[in-house]
Fold this protein.
Amino acid sequence: MWPWEHLAFAYLLYSLFAHAVYRRSPDGAAAFLVALGSQAPDLVDKPLSWTFSLTPTGHGVMHSILIMGPLLAGALLLTNGRNRRLVAAYTIAHLSHLVGDLIYEPLLLNEPLIVGRVLWPVVSLPAYSTDQGGLIGRAAVYFFRWIHHLATQGLTPLVVFELSLVFGVIALWVYDGAPVLADLVRYARSD
């Protein structure tokens, strides 16, 4: 999944959770933590693999349910009140990233389910077969491959789904009061 898809998926799940459990829209702090949690696995694991070669693939410690599951559950148990709500926002977003990485390719690309992606260090996936030139180089290869797909394949069901997810969640975010952006606007006007 692309970063914006991880963000959209995480925000969708957390907004539904907040409306169901707290009976209100996410606030700015929770929405910020959703954004952070949705990106954190890749922000840590991709550089560890693609730049420093410390793990064979971009699915390492932050993608591991064996490590992050107990840490996030412990954080939820040790907090209360507003902090628990914020930890829940981060936890839902972080776990949504792992779920997204697991189900995206099997559901949308008809590729096999690779559960080992979230079982580091018990399962270590095979190293990349080619060096793409580090973090920027590999990210650029994947991005241009996606652009090429858009240019040559047009609006495939996959692209329609991805666009629907992103624009649907933008509409939900606006319905929720545009958290984070609304806070920044209020802050700017207070001066």
